[in-house]
Amino acid sequence: MATTNAQLSTSGLHCRSCSMMVDMTVGDLDGVASVETDYVTGVTKVEFDSDVVTLEGIMESIRAAGYGAEVSAT
Predict the structure, then answer these.
(1) Distance set, CA 24 to CA 2, 19, 33, 74 (Å)
(2) What distance in Å separates the CA atoms of residue 26 and residue 37, rounded to the nearest whole number?
(3) Cα end-to-end span (Å), the chain
(4) In the 8-state DSSP scheme, what is residue 61?
(5) With the C-alpha atoms ordered 14, 17, 53, 35, is the resulting torsion angle positive or negative?
(6) Domain range spanning residue 17?
(7) Can you tell me the distance from the alpha carbon of 56 to that of 53, in angstroms, rounded to the nearest whole number?
(8) pLDDT at position 74, please?
(9) Which of 2, 11, 20, 25 is the most buried (most CB within 10 A)?
(10) Three-state SS for 33?
(11) Which CATH number is 36's domain given?
């Protein structure tokens, strides 16, 4: 198991329901151990097994839910 932590900049979040949607979408992916999205800051923190799911796959799932996702600069 290759546990990886990442911080993403998530755009298009307007309320708590938006952040919950991102968390549910990402949390349903195999290999994701934890996810937490803050709609105020637009930050999504995710811990995942990179042997099971890729960071690009996580970002694609966020985009498919209707939000933007990029690797955070910080």
Answers:
(1) 22, 9, 12, 24
(2) 10
(3) 25
(4) H
(5) positive
(6) 3-71
(7) 8
(8) 57
(9) 25
(10) strand
(11) 3.30.70.100
Nearest to 61 by CA among 16, 37, 38: 37
CB atoms within 10 A of CB 73: 6
Determine the Cα–Cα distance for residues 40 and 58; give it in Å rounded to an integer: 20
Q: How many domains does the chain have?
A: 1
Distance of CA 38 to the CA centre of its chain: 11
pLDDT digits (tens, 9 = 90+) for 26-66: 999 999 999 999 999 999 999 999 999 999 999 999 999 99
Q: Which helix (H) or strand (E) holds 19?
A: helix 16-27
pLDDT bucket at 2, cuts 50 / 70 / 90 = confident
Cα dihedral across residues 24, 18, 44, 64: positive or negative = positive
Of 46, 4, 41, 9, nearest to 24 by C-alpha is 46
